[in-house]
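Researcher: Good morning. I'm working through a list of sequences from a screen, and I'd like to move beyond sequence-only analysis. For each chain I'm collecting a predicted structure so we can compare shapes side by side. This is the next one on the list. No need for commentary yet; just the structure.
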Amino acid sequence: MNKVLLAIAFILLSISLAAPQHRRPEPAPDDWLIVTLTKNKAYFYKPSQVRKIGRIRKVWLKGIPAGEEDRLAYIEKQESIGAHVDYSGYVYSMAFWDVDCTQDKLRIIEVKDYNQYNQLIFSAKPKRLEWVNIVPDSVGDNLSKLVCK
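Model: Good morning. Structure tokens for this chain:
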């Protein structure tokens, strides 16, 4: 009896070892890859869409609220600063950044908010574009490490 069980176990082990091993697929070049997670949002970028112009990297950063509470807090914040649009369907934000890889500076060119249908619900650009220092361990720091390598 023991020899039969041992033989069956050996056969099952052999079959499982001979079966093709499934590895997690590498992300496609067009996939959004994680930049960082904060308390309120997850941030992503698409490496295939990073534009290099000399020492500057131009990149879209996608921010998705971490949960429903964070989504509602963002909506409340936007409404409190006077956004006169329907934010009820808000699901993510896109921000276009310039990252200066040699000066360790960045600037945000524009921000756009989208609803669950991928429709633009709000867009804003700063009145003046100003470079700011990259703060260590920030979203900008994580992004610069990815796009400047």
